[in-house]
Write a structure and sequence with these properties.
2 copies of one chain form a homodimer. By secondary structure, chain A is an alpha/beta fold. In chain A, 44% of the residues lie in helices and 17% in strands. In chain A, the strands form 3 sheets. In chain A, strands 1-11-10-9-12-13 form a 6-stranded parallel sheet, sandwiched between helices. The first copy, chain A, has a 5-stranded parallel sheet with strand order 6-5-4-7-8, sandwiched between helices.
Amino acid sequence: MEIIKYPTEKEAKKALKRIALENKKIIPKVQRIIDTVKAEGDKALFSFAEKFDGVLLSSLKVSEEELNGVEKKISPELKSAINTARKNIFKFHSAQKRKEIKLETSDGITCWRKSIPIEKVGLYIPGGSAPLFSTLLMLALPAQIAGCNEIIICTPPQKDGNISNVILYVAKLLGLKNIFKTGGAQAIAAMALGTESIPKVYKIFGPGNQWVTTAKQIVNSIGVAVDMPAGPSEVLVIADSSANPNFVAADLLSQAEHGPDSQAILITTDENLLHSVNEAVTDLRKKLSRNNIIEQSLRQSKLLLVNNLNEAINISNNYAPEHLILSVNNADDVASNIINAGSVFLGNYSPESAGDYASGTNHTLPTNGFAKAYSGLSTNSFTKEITFQKLSAKGLQNIANTVKVMANAENLDAHKLAIEIREKTDG
Amino acid sequence: MEIIKYPTEKEAKKALKRIALENKKIIPKVQRIIDTVKAEGDKALFSFAEKFDGVLLSSLKVSEEELNGVEKKISPELKSAINTARKNIFKFHSAQKRKEIKLETSDGITCWRKSIPIEKVGLYIPGGSAPLFSTLLMLALPAQIAGCNEIIICTPPQKDGNISNVILYVAKLLGLKNIFKTGGAQAIAAMALGTESIPKVYKIFGPGNQWVTTAKQIVNSIGVAVDMPAGPSEVLVIADSSANPNFVAADLLSQAEHGPDSQAILITTDENLLHSVNEAVTDLRKKLSRNNIIEQSLRQSKLLLVNNLNEAINISNNYAPEHLILSVNNADDVASNIINAGSVFLGNYSPESAGDYASGTNHTLPTNGFAKAYSGLSTNSFTKEITFQKLSAKGLQNIANTVKVMANAENLDAHKLAIEIREKTDG
């Protein structure tokens, strides 16, 4: 890992510059997939499954038999773990539900905002070597707590035409029934446009590869909402002499194993710690199975030595990490100065993997500096708010002149007329 | 206005189908403007002002003298109106500030979410015939209440090189100082990318023409957040026999005068009312100055007669109107069944123009059916939320096995290691 000592603000910025996201080349290809799904519906999904997933499907939808048969295939240990995670995620996300805000802004003018579930949502769960059943928990639980009426799940089939058992188990546990065997850009297109089998949804959630994220971007530009823009996963650790180098090394490695483009960064005020962490990374990675991926991602990882915690905080706020671990003595003080981050982990016993799975927080977070303007996923990502207002005749009278004068200054006659005509008719 | 009697659900859907938004032709042109601003900075903005606004500017930034000189140019009547509107908007948007949510999900595991202002935001205020100073109030007040550190305003210069007095007055009143004379796609590009004069922001707000909305869409795809997707303005009125036909007609006309692509719709259970409204529209529009615009927009407006209020509610929820006026006896009951709308106005004395200017609610709302997934603007549009978690050694121990089992099932070794290594070292 590259070591950078006492960088200026500018040097730190340069050192932590992310690899530019570049999807221009695949945009036309993704657009063609979307157009094909639009034109051919289910037929396109069957043929893409053959082409991309190497499987001839007999049905897109997971059958009741498939769902019912899965429970006995999961170990009691994994069931129990999923249950613990579910409880904590449920608890934290239930607390996020918003109360109605209602008040009288002036005499006779009552205004309120009400949170209402988005009726139809689509959840994308990536396939690949490791089935991300934790992501299904993280997306489906808040959708259910929010009260979404229709929850659609798309996930790519395995070569044998099945969906991973543990994903099906989580779906069954949560009572989810609309699970479709389709992945990639075609799955996003299906949920955005609807096909014979797959209902059209209003908002699409979930991570994915470049094809999936590009498809989300394209359907977003035609008005389908999406959870957030995507980029490679990343962690930044701020550590002082109170940190345990082995803990920090393990946290950096947890990030590094996600993918070859992941970024793991340490900023520390303690030069000894920096070297110990570097050694511990080298030492600990020997035991890990994803060493190839780790090898690649550590190439863009950095260890920064700074003069004090304020410098570390500034660099972190400029970088806006997806995950931020504060392995420092006064973690609460440092946390109160964090203004840009996805999720923050305080102290030596709060590793990222706790939040990835089971502490209760969501693991769907803004990457790539998007935390400067975007929030991580919450129950409110599955709702929208509607504003209401009710004026009494007296209430309208109180602002009648205000509205008329303002409408007049904006040359909007009819807006003025809508007030005048009511003034003439006293309620 | 076209009259449709007792439509089936399908017929109603077809009748209310919106004109498809089509901006493909201008995308390359907008992209060129963005590329030019990226390459040339301020120089590009000066040259676009000459080309598009017909003015040779000496400076992009509004000077302190310009701001200071404006107060005496505004009538006391308009000042007082702006002040009333400001108070109500301030009151409603202050109540929207979110409290921190903090709880223990399990013994020793504390999780919380904190709302934090987006540091740098850009507000776009369109120019044109009527200066939309009300939009400046609607965007800047919530930004200030949220606590945004840097508020940048871009608005196109008039032919004389000035900004409208009333826009400057509102800026001065609110203490806003970073106002730049640039409009169109180039203004969006400047705020998204930054130039010598104009700071780069993290989120861009505000309405605009096709060029502006296309530019927002493009910069959004490279990671700059935007308020919401845009489309033509619209109102839907649900009315029964208790409605006053003149009030309803004036409300439809208020919408129709916004622009030639605006849509105004009435759904009523009362055939007499339908005809009276139709006559009142013909009658009242004679008095209005924007008759040309109204002429065009009324062409896509409809009057629907339905069997009962439930049908009206269903059609409205399918349409998801930006503005929804409930001119019915039991407006509260009907309101409780509304699930898709931007802003809802209850009863005979709650015209849209009240909410457009002065009741306190925001007038930046989702159009084009986007209300199915998007909310109108609120104070929270100017904040993002960060998640925090703090586990004690005991807290981690409580979920250690859960995390290890789940990480194992997802083939993420290092995630498991980050727990194991902490278990070995008891805190």
